[in-house]
Amino acid sequence: MNKIAILTSGGDAPGMNAVIRAVVRRGIFKGLDVYGIKNGYKGLMDGNFISMSLGSVGDIIHRGGTILQTTRCKEFKTVEGQQQALAQLKKEGIDGLIVIGGDGTFEGARKLTAQGFPTIGIPATIDNDIAGTEYTIGFDTAVNTAVEAIDKIRDTAASHERIYVVEVMGRDAGDIALWAGMCAGAESIIIPEADHDVEDVIDRIKQGYQRGKTHSIIVVAEGAFNGVGAVEIGRAIKEKTGFDTQR
């Protein structure tokens, strides 16, 4: 290979710029021409290529988001969109593609590979829902951000003797909720991978109050309870217990 390209797609995740920097620096060290593709798969279809140099990735390792920008592109999911992307790669003389993102990004990479174009996926998503890796890039930062927020919320919950229901991201995966809830000492953690009943949560809250607890933290993954969310769960807890709840 002489020329490779790199793109970021889907939701941005902390650490994407560090990956871009590593790919560019390593590629140039190996004597390759490295190109960035702006705006993910949409940029690939539009032929939005830029030449990457050592200077272009300087001072980006500490920055969040992605310097290549990112989009969600429905058109790329079609055969016509994929053919258009392949034509752009051929026109630019690209020999291989590296994509950084989550499961949707990886599905796009799989489509290109199935049509004979060498494509590598680097898992970067806060959801941590990519098989074959223990931690995706961005997951650790997301967990620590959630833990820091929950720690601050607990101070207010204790001061006002309230129940706080905290909803965290993760789409259909409960990894952020589970890890953040464990680290922050949540009284209940609700994730889509496990069956939960609001009555069980309420019973746990009541047991805590009988032991003298005056506040509780409930962590809910956004994909739990069919996406019902923290607002409805908080409302149900308040209706059945009379305790003051905040979301």
Order of helices and strands: EHEHEHEHEHEHEHEHE
Within the largest sheet, what's the order of strands? 3-2-1-4-5
Structural class, by secondary structure, is alpha/beta
- Alpha carbon gyration radius: 22 Å
The protein's oligomeric status is: single chain
Average pLDDT, to the nearest integer? 92
Q: In percent, how helical is the residue content?
A: 40-55%
Strand count, sense and closure of the main sheet? 5 strands, mixed
Instruction: Tell me the number of strands.
Output: 9
Give a topology summary.
Layout: E1 3-8, H1 16-29, E2 33-37, H2 40-46, E3 49-51, H3 79-92, E4 96-101, H4 103-114, E5 119-123, H5 139-160, E6 163-168, H6 175-184, E7 188-190, H7 198-210, E8 216-221, H8 230-241, E9 245-246
Parallel strand pairs: 1-2, 1-4, 4-5, 6-8, 6-9, 7-8
Antiparallel strand pairs: 2-3
Verbal overview:
This protein has helices at residues 16-29, 40-46, 79-92, 103-114, 139-160, 175-184, 198-210, 230-241; strands at residues 3-8, 33-37, 49-51, 96-101, 119-123, 163-168, 188-190, 216-221, 245-246. The model has no long low-confidence stretch (mean pLDDT 92). Helices cover 42% and strands 17% of the residues.
